[in-house]
Each structure stands twice: as C-alpha cells, then as structure tokens.
Design a protein that fits this description.
Elements: H1 2-16, H2 38-42, E1 63-65, E2 68-69, H3 72-83, H4 90-97, E3 108-111, H5 116-122, H6 126-138, E4 147-149, H7 161-169, E5 172-174, E6 182-190, H8 194-205, E7 210-218
Parallel strand pairs: 1-7, 2-7, 3-6, 6-7
Antiparallel strand pairs: 4-5
Helix pairs in contact: 4-6
The structure holds zinc ion (ZN).
C-alpha cells in the first residue's frame, strides 16, 4: 500500500520536477536521478598519480588511495555534502569512490568519527554516510561506531606541530572488537594525513592487523 503510494508520488514528482544534475542543475534524462550530467562528469578531477605523487604516509597506514583531487565540481559537491545537509549526494559520491576499493584485501569499513559535540551540531557524519553506501555497493561489513573521537581536534593553533600531532594521536579510541581484522578507513578528504594516521594508530593499538586509508579526494600540499 505505502509502496504503491510512494511509487505514484515518485512518478508524479518526475512530471513536476525532472531529475537534475546536483552541480549545475541541468535537466537529466528521466530515470537518471542521482547522477551527474555528462559535462560535469567530464570535469571531475581524477587523480593521475603519474603527474602528482602520493603524500608521505603516517607509519600506521599500510596504504592510501583517493580517486579524485579536491577541486572543481567535486569540491562543490563535497562542501554541500559536508556543510549544507546535501546528504542525498552520498550514493553518488560512494559510486565515485567504489572503484578505488579494487585490489585491497577483504576488510571492515570504518569511517573517521566526529566528536559527539560536532555530530550534535551537524546531525550527521559525512564519512559514515560514505562508508555505509560503500558497504552497500561492495558487500563489505561496515562498523560505523568502531572509532570514537574523544577530543576535538581543532583549536590547537597555539601548539607546535609536534604538540598538535601528539594531541591528534590521543584524539581517537577504538571501541569495537576488530582484533586480527583488516580495516579500510573512510573519510571524505585527505589533507595532511594526521587524522587518518591517528585513527589508524588507535585501530592498530586495538589489535587491527592492517589499516588502509581511502578518501574520496586528496588535497595536494600548497593548495
Ligand atoms: Zn552538471
């Protein structure tokens, strides 16, 4: 009953509001809602690692990969996804991230957590939404609550770099039984690697065998 009503509602909405590209609002063919238009898809900044080398990694990470650079239409989508409640972008962004899982060993997907005060303010954790969609696509298990952020990472401007790194290291705790497992740690953006490194450190301290970092976008140094 509700499904039939839901379908009728969706069909009605398609007549009133044809699907549109989430970046430029261009109309899309019917049935392609939730996708990018061809022009925006063509402008996606795929990361070509023959032109731009990967960053130096924290020792706690076995590997790191990101399919895209943090610029162009992807940057607009991530900003909307992260700060403007555009949670409907999660399936699309996860589809862009999914091919980067190829070649990694079977693993548990774990998102980088937010501090509970930040989560209360934003109401959702964008890394968790990505990880859950990626779990649907890949069939891998996802442990959204495996890590918790026990300290807010920002607002340490007056500390030295070493001091900031030390504090970041103490910012996360693993609360799930993941001993002997391999984890793929999910986040939206890689900037310095300090957050991924600290999360991976907490997971390894809890007995995780190897932690691979996977983010949607990579921000090259100096941008
Ligand atoms: Zn577009």
């Amino acid at each position: 009953m509700f499904n039939t009503l839901g379908n009728l509602w969706q069909q009605g909405m398609d007549v009133v509001l044809p699907p549109s590209c989430p970046v430029c609002d261009a109309y899309l063919p019917r049935g392609s809602g939730g996708a990018l238009c061809a022009a925006c898809y063509g402008q996606l900044p795929w990361w070509n690692s023959t032109q731009l080398l990967p960053p130096p990694l924290p020792r706690s990470l076995a590997s790191f990969r990101a399919p895209l650079l943090y610029e162009g239409p992807l940057r607009e989508m991530i900003l909307a996804f992260k700060f403007a409640d555009a949670t409907h972008l999660a399936p699309l962004l996860a589809r862009l991230l999914y091919p980067a899982l190829a070649g990694l060993p079977p693993a548990v997907l774990v998102p980088v957590p937010m501090h509970r005060a930040a989560l209360r303010a934003r109401t959702y954790n964008q890394a968790a939404l990505l990880a859950q969609q990626l779990a649907k696509l890949s069939g891998l298990p996802c442990e959204v609550l495996a890590l918790s952020r026990i300290r807010i990472g920002e607002a340490q401007h007056n500390l030295t770099r070493a001091g900031r790194l030390r504090l970041t290291k103490q910012s996360f705790a693993c609360t799930s039984a993941l001993q002997g497992k391999t984890v793929v740690l999910i986040d939206d953006i890689f900037t310095t690697g300090a957050t991924l490194g600290a999360c991976a450190g907490a997971l390894k301290a809890a007995g995780v065998v190897a932690v691979h970092g996977l983010t949607l976008a990579y921000t090259p140094p100096g941008t």
